[in-house]
Structures are given as structure tokens and as C-alpha cells.
Design brief:
Chain A is α/β, with parallel strands linked by helices and 321 residues long. The first copy, chain A, contains eleven helices and twelve strands. A six-stranded parallel β-sheet of chain A has the order 2-1-3-4-5-11, with helices on both faces. In chain A, strand 8, helix 10 and strand 9 (260-265) form a beta-alpha-beta unit. The structure holds a DNA duplex (30 and 30 nucleotides).
Amino acid sequence: MKDVAQAAGVSLGTVSKVMNGIPVGEKYRVKVEAAAKELNYQINQYARGLKTNQTFAVALILPGINHPFFSEIAQHVCQALTRRGYRMLLYLTGSSPEVEQSCVQMVRQNMVDGIIGLTYNRDLQLTDDMPFVSIDRHFSSGVPCVSSDNYGGGRLAAEKLLELGCRKVAYFRNGTTQPGEADKRGVGFEQECRSRDADFEVIWLNDEEYPMEEFRNIIIDRVNRGTFDFDGIFCSTDRLAVFVKRVLTELGIRVPEDVQIIGFDGTRRFGEDAYVCSTIVQPVATMAETCVDLLFSKDLSRTPALVCLPVEYAYGGTTKE
Amino acid sequence: MKDVAQAAGVSLGTVSKVMNGIPVGEKYRVKVEAAAKELNYQINQYARGLKTNQTFAVALILPGINHPFFSEIAQHVCQALTRRGYRMLLYLTGSSPEVEQSCVQMVRQNMVDGIIGLTYNRDLQLTDDMPFVSIDRHFSSGVPCVSSDNYGGGRLAAEKLLELGCRKVAYFRNGTTQPGEADKRGVGFEQECRSRDADFEVIWLNDEEYPMEEFRNIIIDRVNRGTFDFDGIFCSTDRLAVFVKRVLTELGIRVPEDVQIIGFDGTRRFGEDAYVCSTIVQPVATMAETCVDLLFSKDLSRTPALVCLPVEYAYGGTTKE
DNA sequence: CGCCTTATACGAAACGTTACATATTGCATG
DNA sequence: CATGCAATATGTAACGTTTCGTATAAGGCG
């Protein structure tokens, strides 16, 4: 910058103004721009960040990125940020609370302007001076949380299964014991079943103790005992739904003729528009963009604490319709 | 840091040393560490970066992240970087040369310590002072390129198809006209066919002009004319392979009984270990880690210009075995 | 006990910006 | 033509680190 100033015969302050688009005398601006191009000058964001405490960077914290749901979130968050001239730091935690905490730590050091996080650590210490938007997890304090309508999705799943003729339905759930918005899927499902006086059961395996494979044993066990009397299953994720479908098929139980299955997420087949199973579709793109919007809303404290985006049902072959 | 120094009754230099793990008198170290914890001191990476020109950040440039191949790359690169105490900036280009160039630009401003890029822009201007490792694209200058053994993969595909009994095989390719390492898939395929005196044909659609859907028209057209005489197809990507399989199935052509198909990448079904099609598997994890290794190798100029990682064939239902 | 050597903490300068107070310019007015 | 005022460029002091030359303390030896 010093070189540019010298080459253009102006002061540093003037160069600074030009680089920031602050109005400056026409002839000066031209000279500075010429000199900058000539010298291939690149502004040093680290010096700027040091001075302004603005870094034009946002951190995205995710458990991983190998799941379509996560990678879609990342994709849309990244695009939304780029559109606003921001860049994205990606942190992958593997769902480990410790790693999650250390991310927040790192993120503070790196002085990003904000964080968007899909975390599981219930005691995550976030500094109140750091804009934070959470996905699928409602923190106590004034951190906004965006999620899809998990409760409504649960109800919708029950409604669909029952309207498609199921007599006894089940909710299969795996995942962490850490409380999150996703819990409401089960709540909605139960309530809808109750209000319809329908027979239902909940089978919940937390994956701290059991791998998803454990569902296989449970199913086989109940089949053997003759207590596998469901004709409709709502699974907490598409991943689980696909797995359950496979197990049932292996056992000679037909899907969807004998048992109908609905998943949650809206995961599509690779290279196709079709869904991997009948499912409750989360509006991932909208969720991601809402996160970014929220992060940039001027007054974070006066912002809605919980943004709940609408879900919809989609047919994917594991239900009759 | 000033506060910490004051609280500990030492100078800034001493605090700096403690924070960087440089040996310092025991009693000083203890006092400084206590004060730092007390004041919840966080080092300011921007100030440090300004001074040292080391940012402990690496940029990963990808076309997008919605494709399993890309997201796996991102996942492993991120993990490898984290393991080394680095963080990752993610840039998504959508395969646009302009965006790719502007990424390099941004990346220079942000003063990352290096770039790993999967780019298509053949005239990408990279500064020679910036460590750059390329995936699947061999630049002229001293930028190392890591890719899987595309040539060998092409030969392997031909070998497999022919050994599984195919009499006339084809290479279906879509993608950019921009030259890249992936071109060698076709070269290897052709050579293996020639050396076996086998009948083969190449159908290449660049997606600047045609969407992948165009393959449907070509296939239908040839079926109608009676010139669809292949019994083995090697597709440049799994994506294309899956598509072609679907088209053939729609036309009543059985896969793999009538036509066997091999793809490229090693994409797995969602939630299963199985591959989406019979395929040549790229060692994505190794590729990603090699990129990071290369980026950190002391003397980038004396580093191999092209690292070629072994591929392997995997059965995925679209071949007889 | 004093001097010299070695080790180690100190202090100031610098990294590349921005922002504010000050100086300069240009222009209109009396 | 001098004066005053507005507009605009200049110069300088930070921002929070690291680094390096200098000063100080500690320890060993004569």
C-alpha cells in the first residue's frame, strides 16, 4: 500500500479510501487505481481485520459433511455467504462435544464475524459477544435457532401413515441423547397418533450405546416372538429408514405392501430426483439461507429465538402413495 | 496480551513466548498461564498473521460440495488439516473459470498458507509465491497434481468388460472440454481395447453444449436405427453410469444381462456400503491426504509434479461380476 | 568478594491497515 | 484582492502481535 501511495503520489490515507470505495477526488482515484493495478496490489485482509475487527469470515460448524443433509447445508451457506462478500471457514466436529467446544475457541481466536453451528454439545460455551446462529438446537440464551418444523413433520408422518391404512404404527429413532429440535419429531408423531386414537409404539436407541445395526436385532427378535405387528414405521432419519427397509426386505417383509416406512430429511438418490424413501422433506436451502440472514440481522437480540421452516411429505417408494 | 503481561508482572515479549511454547523461566510461565486463564485471554490470530505471514489456514477450492466425491474430498482434507492445527476455508466455484480465478484472488488477500484446488480453468493465474496443489489437473509450472490413476482405471474398465464377455464396448463421456487428468480414462480404455483387438466406440458430449440428458436421445436414436450394438459401456463417471443404466432399463434393455456398465469414482449408495454401480474406485481419502502432505512438504519445487494413486475395480450390480 | 560469561527477560520497532485530527486546497463572497 | 468556509488530502497514532538488540540477573570462577 505504501508502494501504491508512492507510485500514485498520494498519501496512504487516500489509497485506503480508494480501496474502500470512499469518495475521493476523481484524478486521485484514477491514479491510485492505475498504480494498484500496475503493482498488482492486493489488500492485506489480516492487517485490515486487525484494525477493524471485521474479518468478512463466518465459521460453519458441522458434525461432518459426508451426509447429503450436511453437505447441502454447507453448499447453501457457502453460497449465501459468498453472495454477501463473506468467506466460510468449515469446521468438522464428528459430533464430539470437546471438538465442538474447541471449534468455538478457535473461532474466537480467528476472529470470524459470526458462527453458524449444528452442534450437539448441550453445554457449549459461547461468548455473548459473538453472533451465533444454531441449527436444530435451541440454546437458552438469546441465540436464534433455525430448524424445520420437526413437530409438524412428526404429525404429518403419522397422518400419512394412518391415512394410508396403517393400523399400528411405530416411531424408530436413533441419535444422540443430547436434546435437540429433532426430538419434536417424536412428540408430533405421538400427539397425532393419540388424537387419532391410533395404536403406536416408540423404539429409541441412542447411538452412544448402540449402533444403528441394533435395530436389526430388535426387528428380528420381535419377528421371532411374533410381536412385530407394525404396518407403518416412522423413522427419525432417512438413513434409518433406508436401513430398516433393507432389514425388512431381507426378512421377506414387503415394503410398502406389508409395512410402510416414512423417513425424515428429504434425501435424494444419487444422480436422480427421486427420494431414497418416502420422507418428510426439510427445506435445506431455505434453512441455510435463513441462518445467514439471521446472522447478519442488525440486532441479534431482537431476532426471533426460533425459526421454524415448513416441511412437506414426499413419496419415495416406501409407502403406498 | 498487554493485560496479561501486566497481571503477570512481565513484559509482552515474555507472554508471547509462553503463548508460543518457547522455553521461559518456570516461575514466569506459571504466572503468565495463570493470568491468561484468569483473563480468559485469546490470542488474536489476525495480529499474529499480520506479523508472521503465517495464517494456519488453507483454502480448498471445489466446484461444489453436493457430489459425494467432492464432499468426501472436503471431509478428508478438512480432517487432515485439523490434525495439523490448520483450518480450512472452503470456496465453491460452480465450475466457473471466472469464479475460480476470483477465488485465487480472494485467497491471496486472505493470506492463506496454501491452496488445494480442483479447478477447470485452464488459464488459472496462480502466483508462484503461493503453495498450490491441484487435484486432477496438471498445470504446466511447478504445481504438483494429485489424481487417481485415470489411465490405469480406463484400461482396467476395458479389461473387465472384455473379460466379462463383451464383444463391442463403448466409452461414454460427458464433462467439460477443459483438459484434465480425467481425459486419460478414455485414453487408457482405448489403448486396452486396441491391444486386445476389440471393437469399441467413443461418444463424447461436452456439457457446455449438451446436458447429460442428451445421452438419452443418442441411445434412443441408435436403438431405433438398430445401431445400438454395444454390450459393454464404460462411463466417465458414476453419475453418467447411473443415468445410462436408467435409460437402458426404461428401454427394456437389461443391465447387466444385455449390457454391462462400469462407471468411475466409487460412489456408494446412501446409507449402504454398496456401490451405486460397478465402478473404478478412486482412493479419495488417500488423495485428500496426499494433497495436504504435498502442500506441507518443505520444498514444493522439488516435489513430484504428478502423484498418481492406484484405483481398483468394484462390483456394483451393473456388471455380471 | 568482584568480575566475567551465559542465560534470559525486557522494550521498542515493525507488520499493513484504518481513522481521526490537522493541514491544505479551492472556491465563493464581501 | 483578501478573507472565510467547505471540502478534501495528509500525516500520525493506533490495532495486537513477534522479533531482535539491549539490559539485567544469575551463576561460576579466580
